Structures are given as C-alpha cells and as structure tokens.
Amino acid sequence: MTTPANYQDYVATHEQAALRLKDISINYKAKRGIVHAVRNISLHLNAGESLALIGESGSGKSTLALGIVRLLVKSAEISSGKVIYQRDGKTMEVLSLQGDALRRFRWAETAMVFQAALNAFNPVLRIWQQIWDTAKAHGWRDKKAVRKKAMELLDLVQLDAERVIDLYPHELSGGMRQRVLIALALMLDPQVIILDEPTTALDILTQRTIINLLRDLKAARNFTMLFISHNLAIAAELANRIATMYAGTIVEIGPTDEIFYHPRHPYTLGLIRAVPTVTGGFEKLESIPGSPPDLIDLPTGCKFHPRCAFATERCRLEEPVLEKIDEDHYAACWHWRSVNPKL
Amino acid sequence: MITAVDSVSISIMPGDIVCLVGESGCGKSTMGYMIAGLLPASDGQVLFKGKDISQMNKEEYRHYRHNVQIVHQDPYASLNPTQLVEQMLMTPLLHHRRVKNRAEARAKAAELLHIVGLTPPADFLVKYPHQLSGGQRQRVSVARALTLEPSFIVADEAVSMVDVSLRVSILSMLTHLREIFHVTFLFITHDLALAKYFAWEEGRIIVMYLGRVVEEGPTQRVIQNPRHPYTQALLYAVPEADPEIARTKKHIELREADIPSLLNLPSGCSFHPRCPFFQPGVCDVSVPELVPAEGGGRVACPVLNKAP
Amino acid sequence: MGESTVSQVPINKIRRRWKVISHDYILRKFIRSLFIVWAAITATFVLIHMMPSNPIELYVNQLVMQQGITYEEAKDQAATLFSIDLKKPMSLQYIEFLQKVIKGDFGTSVLSPGTPVADIIKEYLPWTVFSIGTGLLISFTLGILLGMLAAYRRDTVVDQLLTLYASIFSAVPNYLVAIIILVLFGVQWGVMPIAKLRGVLSPGVKPALSWVFVKDALFHGSFPIIVIVLTWTASWLLIMRSSTWSTLEEDYVNVARAKGLTDGRIMTAYVGRNATLPLFARFALAIGLIVGGSVLIEQITQYRGVGYTLLQAVNRRDYSLMQGIFLILTFSVIFANFFADLLYGWIDPRIKVGNNK
Amino acid sequence: METITLSAPKHIWNSISNLIRSLWITLKLMTYNKVGFLGFLLVVALILFSTVGPYFVKLDTTVKVDQIYMTPSAQHWLGTDHQGRDVFSQIVHGGYEVLEVGLTAATIAVVIAVTFGVLAAFVGSWVDDTILAITDFIIAVPQFAFLTVLAAIIHINSMLLLAAILGLLNWPALLRTIRAQALSLKEREFVEAARALDLGTPHIIFREIVPNMMSYIVISFSLATTYAIYQQVGLILLGLVPFSGNNWGVMLSKAWVRGAIFYKGSFWYIMSPVIAIALLQLAIVTTNRSIEQVYNPRLRTDM
Q1: What is the DSSP letter of B46?
Q2: What is the per-residue DSSP string for chain D?
Q3: Angstrom distance (rounded) from CA D71 to CA D265
Q4: Co-location of C166 and C90 in the same domain
Q5: What would the mean pLDDT of D75-101 be, rounded to a whole number?
Q6: Distances (CA, A) of B114 to A9, B85, B117, B152, C189
Q7: Which residue from A minimizes the CA distance to B231?
Q8: Does B103 contact chain D (CB < 8 Å)?
Q9: Which domain holds residue C302?
Q10: C110 in any annotated domain
Q11: Nearest to C311 by CA among C50, C49, C63, C124
Q12: Domain ranges in chain B?
C-alpha cells in the first residue's frame, strides 16, 4: 500500500490513530498584534508509536502540545481545527469537551509531562498528597490501592519509593522530580503521553537515565508518546517518526531514519548539520544563518526563505505545502529535489 | 559545609583551549569564577604568569583582572536591561582610559561589534538587550568581554542557552577570536559534544566530578579513549543526533542513578557509589591520585588505569 | 604574554559557612522574638530613665514645685511610682527594671496613686485585643477570598469594582474612614446610634458568659471593627490579588489542571495555599500598624480600649501608665508576629529548612 | 578658544533637548496606565494648588460670629467654620505643610533605606545582620503608639523635627524591599561581568544596580510620603503636636475638639480637610501604577 500524494489525505487514511489533529491553528493576542503560534497543522499519532516534534524556541511546538490538552493561556485561541482522540473504539472530539468530560480526558487519556519538572509539583504538599489528589480526581477511592500502585510506579522509575513518597518536592533533585512526574503520568494508564522537553535542564547522566527509562517503559507498557524537543539527539534515541516544525507549522515529517539520513527540507538539513556528535571523528558543522522569524510579522511565501540557501523568487511569493517524497515522508519545500544531504 | 572545589590542580598555557566538563554542582563554574577573580579561593592559590593572585600587589592584580574575562551562560541575564549596547561597550574603555574620548570609544565599540559578527555595528550600538535575540545578546556579551583586550576568557556554558541552529556560529566566532587575538580559552560546559567540537585540534579536556578532577588529557584521547569510568559514563550517556549510533552505542549501567549531595561526599573516590567497576577496599578507602594515563594526560582511577 | 599561566594549585576545601542555628525554624524565630522583647524593654528604659529631661526627672521637678517638698523626698515618691530605686547605679536600676517588667510589674499609676499599672492594663487590654483580633481575622479572611475572586475574574466588572474599593480604602487613612462614617451615618443620616456606641459595654452589662454580654460587646466593638475590616480587607485584597496572579502562572497549577484535578481542589490547595504566603510575609508590618493605629481608631470611635487609655495617659502625663501600655502593645505585636511565623512555617514546609533569608 | 565658545552652547542645547525629550517620553509612558496617569495629574494639581494657590487666595482670619457653619455659597465655596471664617481659603493654605512634612520625611526615609539596604546587601555578614536586627526591631514597635509616647516626652514643636522623626521611623519596610532587590541584582550575571571588567563598586552600585531598582525606589518614596502624611495628620488630630498654623490636620483637629463633627451644619467644614487629605493619599498611591511603566526599558524603546 502506498501513501497518498496529498498530506491531508495521508493523515485522513489513519482512521484508527490514537490522536488525529486536523488543520489546527492557534493564535495569541499580544500588544503588537496577533502571534501566529501554530498554523494549519495536521498530524496523526498511531497507537503505540512515538513521534517527535522538533523545532527551536518559538516554533510553536509547546503551544501545539498545550492546545491538545486544552491548557493554553487565556490570551491564546484555537482558531480552527479538530483534535480527534480514539481508544478502544471510543471517539472523542477533544476541542468540544467541556467541564468534567474534559477533566477526565486529561491525565486518564492523555497525560502531559511538562518541561519545567522542577516546578511541576506544588511546593507545599507532599508527593503522596499530590499523587492521591490525582487519583481521587479520577474516581479512585481506595487510598491503600493508590498508594500500592504509586509505590510500584516509583520503583519502576528507579526511586526509593518508601522514602520519596512522603517527601516534599524541594527535598528531591531535578532528576528525581522528573522521574516522579513520569511515574505519576503512568498512574492512570493513559493511552497518550505528551512529553515537553523531558530532559532539558537535566544533567547528562540523568538525561541518559530518563531516556533509557522512557524507552523501557514504552516497551513494557506500550503507550503512545508524543514528545517535543529542540534536541535532535533525543529524537534519534526515542522516536519512530519525526516532524520538524518551523514558524508554527510542520515543514517535514517522516520516519526517523529518513529524516536523519535523507532530509529534504533545508531547515531539517540545517538542524542536523548544526549538531555535533561525540562518537566518531571531527566533522565540520554549519549553523543556519539569520535568526528565527517574528511570529507576529511573518515573512511572505515560505517562512524559511530569508535563512535558506536554496531560496528563489517562488519561495518569496508562495508558501509550499507538505508534498510526498517517499513512503510516509513529506516535506514542504519547492526545491526538495535539490536538497541533498550528501552535498 | 559545602566543598565545591576540592584540591583541583590544573595549569593552562597561553593560547590553550581547555574545556572543563562536568555535571551541574561538580564545581566547574566555581572554578571558572575563581579564575576570573570573582570568587576568592579560600585555600590554595591561583597563579597567573607564575604569580599567586592573592600575593599580587594592586597594580599586578589589576593587570590580572583586566586580562581575565568571563562570558556567562544566560544571554537574558548577562546584559543590563537598562543600558544600551554602546554604554556596555564604551564604559569599560572609558573607565580604564583605554581610549582618549567618547568618539574614540564609540569607534572601538563599533569595531568590537564587527568582530563578533554584529554587522552593521551602527544598527546594534543603540539597542537595548530586549531588542536583541538570544544569539545576538551572547555576541554582545563576548564583545564586552573583549573590551579590555584580555588574554584569557572563561566561557561559562556560553552557548548552552542559545538555539541549536545558532550554537555552531558562536563557537566558530570564538575560535576565530582565538586566531586573531591569541586569546586563551577556558570553555566550561556539560556537553561533551560541544567540548569535542570546540577543542578538537589542539585543546584539552578536563573532567570534574563533585569538586575533583577525575581525568584530563588531549581532547582526542579523552573522547576516543576515556580512561575514567565517569568520563566513560558521560561519553556513552550523551544522546547522539544519529539514529544508527543511538541504536548501537554502548552504554554503561550505573549502580546508582542519583548524584550524591555535596553535603555528604562519599569516602574515597566520590564516584564509587555509582561506578560499575567499583572494587570494595580500593575505591572507597582513599581519594585516588591523578596519575599519567596512556595516550596523554592524567586520570584518577586505580581500577581502570592500573600500572602495567 | 609569553609565559602566561593560570594555574590552580591545591585548593583545600573552599568552605561556605553554614549556620547551624538556622536549621530549627521555630527556635530561630523564638530567639528572634526574645531579642526584640529585650530590645524594646531596653529602649523604653533608655527613653524613660536616661534621656535628658526624661519623664522621671520631669515628675520629680513637678513634685518639688507643686508640693514644696525636698528634691530627695520627691525622688523617693517618684521611685515608688515607677517602682525603681533611683539611688542605685544605673546598671542596677536597669537590671531591676528588666526583672520587674518580666514579672509583669509596671509600677503604679501617677494619677491614681496606689493603682498598679498592670491592673489598669488588665482592665482595658482585653477590649483592644477583642476588637483588633476580630477585625484582623475578618479582614484577613475576606481579603484572601475577595483577592482570589478578583484574580480569578481578572479584568471583569467584579475585578474592577473590588480593585476600585481596595485602592480607595487602602490609601485613605483609617481614621478618616472612621470620621466619614461618623459624619455620614452618625450625624447626617442619623442611622448610627453614636451615643450608645461609646465605651466598651452598655451601663449595667457585666462581663459574663451570657448572650447579653456577647451581644453588647459586639455592638460596642462594631465601630472599630468595621473600620479595621474596611481598611485592612482592602490591603490584604490587593496583595492577594497580585500573588494569586503570579501563582496562577506557576507550572504546578498548570500541571494540576493537566492532571484533571477539580477546579475546587486547584483553587484551594494549589493556588490558594501558595498565594497566601506573601500575606504572612507582610503580617509583621501590618500588625505593628494596626496595633499602633488603635490609638487613633479608639479615640475617634470612643472605644475604651488600651489605645484610648494610652492617649489619656499621654494627655495627663501619667508616665508610668504610658510606659506600661507601650510595652504591652509592643509585646502583643511581637507575640502576634511569632504566632504568624509559626503559621507560615506550617503552611510552607520549605522555609523550615535551609537558611532564613 | 573659539571652538569651545562655539561648541558649548550647542552642547548645552543638546542636553536640554535630550532632557525635554526624555521628560516627554516619561510623560507619554505614564499615560499607558490611564488610572495611574489620572493619579499623577491629581498629585500635580494638588501640589500646584497648595504651593501657588496661597498667592491667589487670601487666608481668611477675621472672626465673624454671625456667619458660623455656613453652607457653601458663591462667596464661601466650602462654607465657613466655627468662627465664621472661609473654609476654602483654609484648604488652599493648609496643604503646603502637609506636603512639606510628607515629602521631607519620605526623602529621609528613602535615603536611609537605600543607603543601608544596599550596604546590607553588599557588605553582608555582621553588617547585614545588624541592619536586619534593627529593622526587625523597629518593625515590631507599634509605630503610632510610639509616636504618641514620644510626643509626651519631647515637644515636637517644629515641622522639621516632626519630619525628621517620621523619616527616622519609616525606613524599615522600604529597606527590606530595597535590600531584597539589591541582593538579587547583585547576583545577576551582568553585575558579575562589571566586576570582571573591574569597573569599581561605585559604578556597580550606581550604574548597574540602582537603575534596575529605580521603580522600587520611586514607589518606596511615594509609599513613604503616604505613611508620613498618615502619621502627621494623625498626631495633629490627637492634639499631640501643637501646631497653630494652617494645616489640613489642624483644621481636622479643631473640628474634632470643638465637636463640630457632631453638628449637622458643619458637614462642609469637617469634610473639606477629610476629602483633601484622602484625595492626596489616593492620588499618590494611584500614581504608583504609572511609575512601573516609566522604568520599564522595554516600554521606553517601543515608543
């Protein structure tokens, strides 16, 4: 079976996907004008897969994640689109969920592990209290059962459960807090877990612990993972598929190896070329010239053209849409045929 | 009582590129601050051109202070939000009488901006920090560090908060400075990949763990043939931006995931509670000495670096 | 720069000082309170006994002038009043003064000789404690609730009205508020029974555990309490509003939402509890202002508490009574602060460890 | 010589035009917060009213027994007092002292708070401990009760003395804010960079730290002014500072002592100083909303 040429059709064919985003746009109101944080994103996330959203600060990746769980700040508005969530044959339209239905969707269906795990815990409540709060909000009444399950999960993330569960957040290190949060994310057996920069601001050895942990947990529990990072390396370690975001939209999406070894969007290529590796000899690196675009006053045409070596008149005038390159591999570039990583 | 840096002894020769690598809390920033004269060393000494800085007379100390500058990590905190770029660059010049008048100071400031790649300088002189991007701010930080024409720059995690796509260009700018000004660099980072990239040709890497140097040596040797278990653990832990390497790379399983508190340092080699090569009675008894390692440099591990 | 070398030769133990005492939060706060009590007593001693033209000397001179007795006799009389032996050296006087104050002996009143100052204080203090305590409790609670309401309803009419009220009543001096109430409700519209409100109890009502007594006490206390509530609710509201704003932006509140907690739980345990912390930090300042302000409020509202009595003592130059009341008021503030610190420590577990700054 | 005489006026002209420009920008920034700007306009109006006003309105001192407690009329805009004197003229003349004491006391308090707050933050160790201990102590003293007792012991018989006492008493709360600010600014990386560049402590304090806490200093100043006005009027109202001149507090005190408060006809007499003081306090506090805008460099350059 070959994938359709049109990206929208491609997303539409995955009717069984755990999460499907249709044409999502999110705007912020700012003093200077409207911030186009997310522009017309369509995306599907199959049950059990692990998709990485890669982009730099201001690419809209965190906004998109917050939009999915409906936690955007008041000044932000999802101006169009649909989020369809499916589990065991049940379908939910996330953007139309209200009140208790929305509350139950959160964490029980889609849990989100935040970027700043350092502040993810209420400083005045013990870890146990915060776990119990979560369970209670989703209908658990048996304190003993919750505590037993919490201890198992804390064990699973390699923490001294007996000790950690009765501590206050400030008594834990950053890495420990991040692991507690991951354990807490598994508490209600959600189908989808969104991880926003799960390892940023952590030490290398702690990062490694978390990466291995996530890989093992995913193998053991088979949840669906959407993670967001500016760090390509995390994607290489954990993702089946990668989507590159630039100026609020997806510019390239495909299987991990395809993206790394045959990138077809100049931005993806630039990102890969800009990151040094430890293994192997010395490689010459290049950075992408210029700086990320102003989301209030976006460039015309392809938003990447001011920084792009391949840019032509057409790029300045017309914005390209995602176009099929290979099986499951789509890129939004007029000149993808000339983009060759070997050069 | 916290001992941030314990018995560290390193020497840096003019024109060197030295990367100080370690995790947060290992004392690498404390080291950088002591070298830049921002923190006093309570015990021991910092020698500059062979002279102990605490024994220097006023004039010598001034000379030393002006010769050693620092570039900080956070481009959002390292520039005074109430000052224009030109004020930041002109003040040190005027204060230390490196120029005759304001016009000359302004010309010099423009020249510095040009050197760090902020062109045309006229556009950047009259900007406030909040009008600049993270990468641009970091360049201004570097330009400010260059005002007194230092011979030594401590770059404390200087690119770790800059967008990935711009990091390399700032690193190359720093490398370029070394070529034109013969500046000696102490590059403090937690990222071995950056250390490798920055110091590959003729640099050295010093690895610190909980306030002690555990290994040092030429970059290529340390990266390709790490001798200390901690260096190995760090190297293998670095996530690689290459799926093939990520799949095949070997990993070291640590015995303990969490770093001990500085308040309660383990006995002997402070890495022993986490070290997979731990040998009871050896590692937990006395602090291992740094001894010459095969292929250059020194390493402090009695187990992996056994004398032949 | 040929041989420039920067080297780190054995740096043995860079030591940062770690204060051991600062580990026990309660002990630390207790020692601090004791210190302030001592400082207050000492300052009072210096002011009353050692300053040039101090009250004792003034009193002695007054006695000599009025009663035609000798300087020595006058000094003896003064000594009994202030319960201090003026013949002893200053250091001994100071130690005796300290001992007596700690025992609760503040000497006897100048105006009604023979009446211990402590007895006068005992009579009037409970009323001030009652009115300030009630006013503080109500304003603190209302301030927290309304402040949160305003923050949750940010930029709505509710918020604007509450902020308008709070801006006005936190800026206008509380005694002016009392005067305005008096003039408008008491005099112009005649809805407030000014004459009946005076004093702390109506004639004939005696302190007892009865409904009549409680009702009467509340009736007489209502005017000062209303003034305190009106003005202090405004101040607490403004602090609470802005601290709720910043708490609402904290990651843990967002995480709590992501975890699907109920709004009620988030509002109380996650936002509310953390947002009240700055109020406790401001408590020390507030209590000093409120207790000091009781002199003014009780005067305007004609409520005979200890503040009213202090002003009378000042007007009649009853120095020993003044000294006693001032010390008692100061001790009350210190005690209230200590209590607030304990509460703070209970609400925020973080401050019990680490350093105190 | 010639170049100097030629360039000097131009230089002065440049600084003047720069000054005007920066004043204009400051004013414009204040308008960002409309309520705050309204408060600011009111403060300016009240200051003008109390300083320039007395030159235009003559103080009415003649006792007219037949005209007591009159309601407002074209002749007496705010009615008359218990001796038949014009209330409006008293209001015009009564603000100057209130402002004078308030501003002097605030200046003293802010100078102490900034000097010792920055000192405590910079020197640390025992200096910091001592300053904090004194601060804690003064905060624990119920201030107004202390002032009451103090007024019984020493005779506060001059404006300057009163202002000095209030100034010496009102700094602790401000000091805490300033010290906390200075402590956090001191650790900022740009301050470390200035230290590495050996720019000296005066530069670090006055060029790096103080400009970054200007909004706190100015707000502290306005808060200190309101404290001092509160205490000053309170003391006068209780008759503890024997002032005879014209002052809103004295007007209030007289009305209180004479029992005018309890007389229905004296509404305008009693309410005039009440409203004047309340309006002044309200205006000062409201201005704070605009002050933050002025010291935000982000806004300044977006103009």
Answers
A1: E
A2: -HHHHHHHHHHHHHHHHHHHHHHHHHHHHHTTSHHHHHHHHHHHHHHHHHHTHHHHS-------GGGTTPPP-SSSTT-B-TTS-BHHHHHHHHHHHHHHHHHHHHHHHHHHHHHHHHHHHHH-HHHHHHHHHHHHHHHHS-HHHHHHHHHHHS---SHHHHHHHHHHHS-HHHHHHHHHHHHHHHTSHHHHHHHHTT--HHHIIIIIIGGGGHHHHHHHHHHHHHHHHHHHHHHHHTT-S---S--HHHHHHHHHHTTGGG-GGGHHHHHHHHHHHHHHHHHHHHHHHHHHHHT-HHHHHT-
A3: 7
A4: no
A5: 81
A6: 50, 13, 5, 20, 77
A7: A205
A8: no
A9: 117-356
A10: no
A11: C124
A12: 17-202, 226-308
Residue C109 within a domain: no
Interface probe, candidates D43, D71, D125, D146, chain C, greatest C C-beta count within 10 A? D146
Chain B nearest-CA residue for C6: B48
Q: Are residues C132 and C174 in the same domain?
A: yes
Tell me the CATH architecture of domain B17-202.
3-Layer(aba) Sandwich (3.40)
Task: Specify the number of domains making up chain C.
Answer: 2
Q: Do A212 and B233 touch (CB under 8 A)?
A: no
pLDDT digits (tens, 9 = 90+) for C196-211: 878 788 877 777 778 8
**What backbone torsions phi and psi does residue C220 show, to the nearest 5 degrees?**
-70, -35
pLDDT of chain B, 308 residues: tens digit per residue:
344 455 667 778 888 889 999 887 777 888 888 888 888 766 667 787 777 887 888 888 888 888 899 998 888 889 998 899 999 999 999 999 888 889 999 999 999 999 998 888 888 998 888 888 888 999 999 999 999 999 899 998 888 888 888 888 888 888 888 888 888 889 999 888 889 988 888 889 999 988 888 999 999 999 998 999 999 999 988 888 888 888 888 888 888 878 887 777 888 888 998 888 888 888 888 888 888 888 888 898 888 766 44
Statement to judge: residues C134 and C97 lie in one domain: no
Would an 8 Å CB–CB cutoff place C19 in contact with chain B? no
Domain D45-299 matching CATH 1.10.3720.10: the answer reads yes
Element (H, E) at A215: helix A204-221
CA pair distance C42, D184, nearest whole angstrom: 34
Who among B72, B131, B144 is closest to D301 (CB)? B131
pLDDT at A306 over 70: yes
Nearest CA to C28 out of D139, D129, B262 is that of: D129
Residue C270 to residue C256: CA distance in whole angstroms: 8
Domain C-terminal end among C42, C70, C102: C102
Together in a domain, C344 and C226: yes
- Please list, in sequence order, all residues whose beta carbon lies within 8 angstroms of the beta carbon of residue C199, skipping any fewer than 6 positions away: C220, C302, C303, C304
Same domain, C138 and C243: yes
Query: What ipTM describes this predicted complex?
Result: 0.86
Nearest CA in chain B to D189: B78
Residue ranges per structural domain of chain D: 45-299
Listed residue (B262, B268, B308, B264) closest to B288, CA to CA: B268
Asked if residues A109 and A97 have their Cβ atoms less than 8 Å apart, the reply is no
Q: Examine residue C107 and state whether it is found in any structural domain, yes or no.
A: no
C108 belongs to a structural domain: no
The pLDDT of residue A125: 93
* One domain for residues C123 and C165: yes
Same domain, C94 and C166: no
Q: Is C90 on the interface with A (CB under 8 A)?
A: no
Q: Does B44 touch chain C (CB under 8 A)?
A: yes
The token duo for A315 is 């790029």
Which amino acid, one-letter code, is at D292? E
Is the domain of C200 the same as that of C251? yes
Q: Among A211, A271, A272, select the one facing B239 at the smallest CB separation.
A: A211
Phi and psi for B209 in degrees, rounded to 5? -140, 125
Where does a domain end: C102, C137, C169? Answer: C102
Nearest to C320 by CA among C114, C20, C124: C114
